[in-house]
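Journal club prep, notes for RB
We'll compare a predicted complex against what the paper describes. Inputs for the EPU case:
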Amino acid sequence: METNLKPHNTFGIQAQCKGIIRLYSEQDIFEFLLRQDSQYLVLGGGSNVLFRSDYDGFILKNEIKGIEIIDEDEKALLVKVGAGEIWHSLVMWSVGHNLWGLENLALIPGSVGAAPIQNIGAYGVEQNKCFHSLNAIDLEQGTTRTFYNEECNFGYRDSIFKQAEKGKFLITHVCYLLSKIPNPVLSYGDVASEVGSSTDRSEVIAEAVIRIRKNKLPNPAEIGNSGSFFKNPIISKEEFEPLQALYPGIAFYAAGAQVKLAAAWLIDQCGFKGIVDGNTGTYKKQALVIVNHGAATGKEIFAFAQKIQQAVKDRFGVVLEMEVNVV
Ligand code: EPU
């Protein structure tokens, strides 16, 4: 049985597990649950995980595929997607049908099943905007359950599946409600300037996002990485004001009654942008992205990430939380 995790994490970390089990249907999952006697971890595209060491258990690879239209009217369409589909393929399918909702999320690595877990987002849109529901298997009870949008407690890179229900469910399908009526989100400066004037084709936005991402972010096929390594920290206005007085150039976004700081800016200011530290470092164009220069171990990357956290804490008094799941 395959045990090498290197092809299964976009960081390209060399690690071993007891075996990789591919699940193609709900039936496969139930059969696995009946006979399993070892710990296991469900992996989507492996684009948001850092293996610090070998994993003493099985890796379950969700391979449930399919994009199926289950309902539609003149305004919208409800689509049910296998959790093992590649996220970007779903986005391209949706824009190919000129449907609206997912176009700003083009080229995000990972699988459809992982998208709701960390409520992926980019360029002014998060997946919960058109998330309808998901089907999951309760791994303890061996039963199926549907979660509707309101039940998932979606937040910034957050959901119930990272909090109270962490590790308890295996997502099999996700349903998205996509609009047939043009609704371009051009709030993000780069996207607006790349698109030019507004458009009635969602594909135009997806293509703009693809160009922006390709220009800014490293391609994991060429250089191992996991996208943004940390979350953008959210702090109170009371904490923010003295920081802004000290650092007038500080990059931030409004976050309701609070303020979201650009972690990339904080890291950059600490002198980490583009640096090489042994086999690891940060990307030359985006300080928030930690990269594997080829032979990095998970331990090495983790230690480097801690070094960044410490520097940002010392300089700004701000705690950076890892976005990546450390195993
Ligand atoms: N900046 C720097 N130095 C850098 C890079 C950026 O100072 O090296 C400053 C700039 O002022 C820039 C600001 O930081 O305006 C924000 O940078 P950017 O627009 O690249 O966005 P981000 O906040 O770093 C977030 C998401 C990305 C998402 C982009 C676009 C998080 C943790 N990251 O990055 O998501 O693509 O916005 O919406 O929220 C991911 O989650 O893996 C990811 C790539």
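Talking point for the session: The mean pLDDT is 95.
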